[in-house]
Each structure stands twice: as structure tokens, then as C-alpha cells.
Amino acid sequence: MTLNFTTTLSPVGALTLVASDAGLVAILWENDRPGRVKLGAMAEAPDHPVLAETARQLRDYFDGRRTSFDLPLDFRGTDFQRRVWAALLTIPFGETRSYGAIARQIGRPNASRAVGAANGRNPISIVAPCHRVIGTNGALTGFAGGLAAKELLLGIERGD
Asked: Where's the Methylguanine DNA methyltransferase ribonuclease-like domain (predicted)?
């Protein structure tokens, strides 16, 4: 199956939006690590309804007019990864959680490192807010879009 994609500009750089007929599959960073998200064949389709709606909702988010997303999501990963990514969706706008808190939430209290690895492979950044996951000590930790982007996203949510 060929996936659809388009690129949209944002305050954190060009984002590549990827969708299937079922929903949003990925939001890729401009300098994303090759292979971080496995996708397969893609065809440019800027008018695809999921891609157009994702771009619109992202603009609203970056402009401070949106605190949540309402998009069909098509997560592709292992069962564990999908559980972590589903937990990301429960973190309220403007709040953060630690990797340990996510591990406890999904019933795997000793899996903080595995949660970190799954978080790093989150294909739907921003919408599934992996930027809201921080170290137990409150430090900003690894982020596919870079720590500057993570800080910018958290700043938007703080109203900075």
C-alpha cells in the first residue's frame, strides 16, 4: 500500500505529514534520523483530506488556537509501542510526564528505558505529544525533532 504525504512549514521547520486511507501515520521532522519511522512507498498528495486537516490543525496549534487534535490516527508499531503512544495521547496540554510515569500507566513500572525507546520512535510527533515526556528530574531529554524544538513546543503550551 502506498502512503500519501505532503510537507508543511512550521515554527519547528518543515514537517512531512504521512497518511493512509485510515488516518495519520506520521509527522516527520525536517532532519529526522533515517529509519526512525519505517513507512515504505509514498506518493505526494497535498489534497488528501487527512493531510489537509492535519496541516490546518497544526497551524492552529502553533498559532495558540488549539490545545488538542481531532484526527484519525493510524499508529504502526509493536503492541508495546502502541500502548506507549496511546499513553502519550492522555497527557493534557501544558503538562508533562516522566518516562517512569508512562511506564507505570501502561502497567510496566520497570520499563522506563523501553518507554523511552518507544517514545523515540513515536511516528506521530506533536499530535501524540512525546515532547511532553521529560526526565524524572524535570530535564528535557532526547527528542527526534531536537531539544530546541521540544522546548519551543513546551513553550507554546506554557503560553510563552
From this structure: 6-75
